[in-house]
Design brief:
This protein is mainly β. Helices cover 13% and strands 35% of the residues. A 4-stranded mixed sheet has the order 1-6-5-4. Strands 2-3 form a two-stranded antiparallel ribbon. Strand 2 (21-22) and strand 3 (29-30) form a beta hairpin.
């Protein structure tokens, strides 16, 4: 998996809210506390994604929420 592919992950919204999403770079669990920017123009409907900064490795990546949940 390339770095660009790791910068975009699709996850269940409830898993993210419960801090059960791992950073694709170091594996640290992240959640809403680490959001740096919200995106409202990303599908699915309701459209929502967020830019997250990992507290451990400091890498930024985009979390896109699946329409599950």
């Amino acid at each position: 998996m390339s770095v660009d592919e790791r910068r975009r992950v699709t996850v269940d919204r409830h898993a993210f809210l419960d801090y059960r999403v791992a950073c694709p770079f170091c594996g640290t669990l992240v959640g809403p506390r680490f959001v740096t920017r919200e995106h409202l123009d990303v599908p699915p409907n309701p459209a929502y994604a967020a830019t997250v900064r990992c507290p451990k490795c400091r890498e930024m990546f985009e979390v896109r929420f699946s329409d599950a949940g």
